[in-house]
Amino acid sequence: MERTRLRWIGIVVALLAFTGAGLSHISFNVDILKLLPTRLPQVKGLSLFLKHFAQPNELIVTIEAPTPEAAEAAADALADAFTKRTDLVQRAVSHAPWEKNPADLSELLAFLVINQPPEKVRALAASLSPERADATLQASLEKLGESLSPQEIALLSYDPYNLAGVVGDTGFFSSGVDQSEFSSADGTYRVVYAVSAHDFRNYKAAIAWVKQMTQLTHSAVPDPSIHLGFTGEPAFMADISGSMEWDMASSGFATLVVIASIFWLCYRRARPLMDLQAMLVLIFTLTLAAAGLFLSQLTVIGVGCAAIMIGLSVDYGYFVYQRSLHHRGTVAELQRQCVQNIVWTSGTTAAVFFALNFSSLPGLSQLGTLVGIGVVIGAIVMLTVYARLTLRFHRREEARPPSVVERLFATPGFWRKGAIATVALVVGLLVSLVVNGLPPPDFSARTLRPRNSEAYTALDRLYARLTDDRDMLSLVVAGKDEAQVLKRLRNAEASLSAAEARGEVKSFHTALPLWPAANNQRTNLPLLAPLAGEVARLHERAVAAGFKDEALVLDEAIFRQWAAWADSPTPIWPNNDTSRWIFRHVASREGDQSLALGMVTPVPGHEDALTAAVQKDGIWLVSWNQLGRELRHVIPREFGHVIIALSAIVILLLVIAFRSARAVGLFIVTTALVLACLAGAMSLLGMSWNFFNLAALLLLLGTGTDYSILLLLALKRNGGDVPAAQRELGLVICLCAFSASAGFGTISWANHVGLASLGQTCALGLVIDALISLFLLPRAWAFLHRSRQLRQ
């Protein structure tokens, strides 16, 4: 006895250590692209875009005020408050960094000039010679007098020798670009960018930081007439991770409540109910601990595992309890009576879910691993622990009469009326399928985002008030170094120019003018660096031409910058704060990979052709809308392959279990009828197929098929006696179906659109599956065997 007690203590301690270690590693990944195969060009390109250009530590605070003056004052107050909190904020920006000090642009302009073709730079150097400097200054004065462009006037006022003229249009100096990032045209909408002082260890750190920043913002701008919004990567992480955490907890809790209600309605026994609830919590905790140890992060699909695991594991508990009601033998005997049904149903379910790891969709692989682990743990816990608990309870309680629900399931009239109602339902759903057709596909970006998110609401408002680039395509160019990226940028520019000539592109800007050209830099620096020694002469001539002393600040800083770079290795990158600010959305260098970003505005209807023409090795043309178009073609085919493979696994297991062609044939027909009715129900309710609820088909293969398997096993065990099989398992299967439907149904209220559609589709499919398996499958079995007996 002492040895047994020590063994149990050791098991409990080991489980506690396992659970603690696993739960401490739980983390959420809000990147929807982690659910999709990386081999897809859109997924690869968008992943690079998000990784290198999404600014993971930058919070964007939006300000809407009644007047431009109030908006600017609020933006300045916020930037000042953020700057003082060095424990929270590394940098806060409310205006273009060069706005107050144009000389800050000197490094960028010096960089752009040395990137130009050598013939342009030689012409520039000649225009600064003693013989031509006065003519150059006179041309600048004439431009200042004639120009109608505020940007050109502002730049020439600090660039009398027109050094920027050799650069041309870089896409940065074009009209309005520098203003659109900070303020709307009327000035009543402004944006402040705040970079976190520290990297976020996990999603909880992001939630805490955003909460602190929100409080700081509202205290710095208490005016109720000013509307504040928060968006950017930290806001998305906090918003979505928080809702994912809530979805997991709330769906699991709601499922437990529904299961408790169903159990109490049927059995009216508190102690077994409490034991069952404890087992479900134990199963969920152990599975989540395993997820923390073996999976790096949970995706949005993985969040749905809580309710799914509870809804599936309770099936085995119901089966054990129902068998225990009429069992008076030992625990071992009860376990032997239950083991065949539980092993076959849980084995089939686990095999199907584990087989999802062969899919190229990482999201499905994670869901398969989580639920597969949960099913195995659930079967073991119910057979080993719950069977022992429930049998001890029955030995202590007095005999009780069957409940109203139990008597109902023993009534022949119930089964007859149920069969009639199920036939009517099936006919109606099939008619709906014929009339309305299959549910339409929807792979738009809408299904990939939360239903309610303050971060997304703020982003939509930012698009509406500033620059809306959602109809644009992002040009992502990657290479192992600057030279390879430069070559690919030139190829992309040529492809886009050809597409523009074909009428497929309205406009485009690539990073080519801003990308370092090492060969040009090496040729141009020896021509430009000596100009630093002629600053006095150039300054004197400019003042004599009518320019003020401060007008030379920018040009003189450029001359000194060229001299400072004279002996630097190439390629040279600008590195001051202003340059880094501008380049953060244009270029990225990390390890042995360099990336450049551009924007393309396609002609509507030509996106696919344009993408096909431009995308080559290391070049991607991507957007969320393009991802939806790619998924529309790829995902149904991928799911089709997975469904065929999983169906083959299930059928193989059934052949081993039943050794009967009729039983396997009935299972196939039942499953096909369930899927057809599900499609009809979705069409009737106006639902559509998306990336998430397509997984419902796979889940139904792993969960709903249990009902058919249990009925077929019962029919085989009872020698084909349909009433006996229905009496034995009717109540259990109804309980299982309602519990599993509750598990999926609670996900229907998840904040994520796609995850909610997964829950709705699965709950609908499981109810249909249970009705067909309970009321129609046994009658089909009886009809086939009666026909066989008549032929004999």
Give an overview in words.
The protein is α+β, with helices and mostly antiparallel strands and 792 residues long. Helices cover 65% and strands 7% of the residues. It has helices at 2-23, 41-53, 68-84, 106-114, 118-127, 133-146, 150-157, 177-180, 203-220, 233-267, 270-294, 300-303, 305-324, 331-355, 362-396, 404-409, 412-436, 454-465, 482-501, 518-528, 535-545, 553-564, 577-583, 607-614, 624-658, 661-685, 695-702, 705-717, 722-747, 753-791; strands spanning 58-64, 89-93, 189-196, 227-231, 473-479, 505-509, 587-590, 593-602, 619-622. Strands 5, 6, 7, 8 and 9 form a 5-stranded antiparallel sheet that branches. α9 (203-220) packs across α10, α28 (705-717) runs parallel beside α30 (753-791) and α29 packs antiparallel against α30. The longest helix is centred in the C-terminal third of the chain and has 39 residues, at 753-791. It is elongated, with a radius of gyration of 34 Å. The two termini are 60 Å apart.
Helix/strand structural class? alpha+beta
Measured as a percent range, the helix fraction is 55-70%
Task: Using the CA coordinates, give the radius of gyration.
Answer: 34 Å
Runs in which pLDDT lies below 50 for 5 or more consecutive residues are: 171-179
- Broad shape: elongated
Oligomerization status of the protein chains: single chain
Biggest β-sheet, characterized?
A: 5 strands, antiparallel
Mean pLDDT: 82
Q: Alpha-carbon distance between the termini? A: 60 Å
Tally of contiguous helical segments: 30
Per DSSP E runs of 2 or more residues, the count of β-strands stands at 9
Strand content: 5-15%
